[in-house]
Design a protein that fits this description.
Blueprint lengths: L2 E9 L3 E3 L16 H8 L1 E7 H5 L22 E4 L11 E4 L2 H12 L3 E5 L1 H9 L5 E7 L7 E2 L11 E9 L2 E8 L1
Length: about 180
């Protein structure tokens, strides 16, 4: 059965996108990372928020632009949106209901990970009791503004159990199980 994983690169001060959704800050931190190379082989599908799908690409102007993990991964992507287009690229499925999108992504993933992209979708997975793990790559930079890794007005404590902590040339990788 598929596990649901939120994998994300984050600035040291807790932002996954800069002001206005800017992802350009991330480009210099996309270097080799053995943790990600191993993870890519374990991903069966993606569950993606519409803002993330439509948003800025850290690989803009580079090979792999517009592709998951800079072109390192290919497979089914389930985009949660209230604006379903008439047509979609191959292996991209626009679904107007979170629960349906998650169920479809889990089925497509088989015994691999459903990899979540987007802070709001990760929050929805967490609130539904469906988020199993979190992999955060901490980049050595502070942005000061943007989209937070996890934001819930009024607060919400989420217990995590550390599974591993590793380093790569441009990031510190922290992998957790949701308690």
């Amino acid at each position: 059965m598929a596990k649901v994983l939120y994998s994300v690169t984050m600035s040291l001060d807790g932002y996954i996108a800069g002001a206005g959704g800017d992802m350009g800050w991330m480009t210099r931190y996309l270097g080799p990372n053995p943790e990600i190379s191993t993870l890519i082989e374990q991903i069966g599908s993606l569950l993606v928020g519409r803002r993330t799908f439509d948003g800025d690409d850290p690989n803009k102007g580079r090979e792999g632009e517009g592709k998951a993990f800079g072109g390192g991964w290919e497979g089914p992507q389930y985009i949660v949106t209230h604006r379903v287009p008439a047509s979609a690229p191959t292996d991209v499925f626009f679904v107007d209901d979170f629960a349906s999108a998650l169920a479809q992504a889990k089925e497509a993933a088989g015994d691999k990970y459903v990899n979540v992209l987007g802070a709001d979708i990760a929050r929805q997975c967490l609130e539904a009791g469906e988020l199993d793990e979190v992999l955060t790559l901490i980049a050595p930079v502070m942005l000061g503004d943007g989209t937070r890794l996890f934001d819930r007005p009024g607060g919400h404590t989420v217990g995590l159990e550390r599974l591993s902590a590793t380093t790569a040339p441009m990031a510190t990788n922290l992998w957790f199980r949701v308690a």
